[in-house]
Design a protein that fits this description.
two-stranded antiparallel sheet, seven-stranded antiparallel beta sheet, about 25% strand, alpha+beta, 10 helices, 9 strands
Length: about 250
Amino acid sequence: MLNDIVCSYSVLMNFQELHELLRQELLRRIDRGSLTGTHLARLAGFRQAHISNFLNKKRALSLEGLDRVLAAQELTIEQILPLELTAASAVLQNHDPTETVPVVSPSTAMNEPRLSPGAIIETIHVSASRLADNRARPSPKNIHWQRFVAVRADLQQAAAMEPTLAPGSIAVIDRHYNSLAPYRVQQPTLYAVRSGHVLLLRFVDFDQGCLILRPASTSTPAQLIQLAVDETPSDYLVGRVCLLFTEL
């Protein structure tokens, strides 16, 4: 079952690199106490020495073994891949049917539940299966909004999120994901966030009634949004950036 999935990523990274991503994720789980090597071996049907050797980089898993470990931990390859590789895989899957995603202004992305033809600057074609695979967590007010829109990152956006964003990158926003629940294991979620009249692309934390908007670049300061008593984080989360395209 996993063979076809691995082949679709073969242009992006080799099998050894996939092994290393999985190994790092398993070690993170062991470090935080949610997993032990013994428990993993039992769940995946391996001898403990086999798993120990894999975790200590003394031997590799077979394709079947990789599949068994992923299944035992309820993981998918996409959950351990960096966001930019997940996006790139969508571009490579040319055999898939595609859907048209409108590229709009930041203001339109924030404020227009349904897009009028005049609001669309351009369109891009995205793998239909890749869009369908996105998990939704919509807020009540967003559940009827047109789900996927895209914006182009300007120089200011790109500078704050370097190297995640490059100038001119297209960020596809899932406006049905307005939750702070992490989307991928041990990976920060990139959000489109409403900050006054400005749309920001940032990593987001929530603490003591404040949204903390974190850039990727150390030269850009974090920003705080103080929530009013009757506000929730979803009032500011326009959506999750589910795909990034740096070249079209």
